[in-house]
Amino acid sequence: MSDSQRWFFLIFTLVVGFLLYLLQPILSPFLIAALLAYLTDPLADRLEARGLSRTLSVVVVFLVMTTIVLLLVVLLIPRLGYQLQVMIKMVPQVFAMIQTVWIPWLEQYTGISFAEFDLQSLQALMSGHWQQTGSLVKGVFSSVSQSGLALAAWVANLVLIPVVMFYLLRDWDVMMDKIGVLLPRNVERKVTLWAQECDEVLGAFIKGQLLVMLALGVIYSLGLWAVGLDLALLVGMIAGLASIVPYMGFIIGIVAAGVAAMLQFNDITMLWWVGAVFAVGQALEGMVLTPLLVGDRIGLHPVAVIFAIMAGGQLFGFVGILIALPVAAVIMVLLRHLHQGYKSSKLYDC
Question: Which residue has the higher pLDDT, 331 or 125?
Answer without folding.
Answer: 331
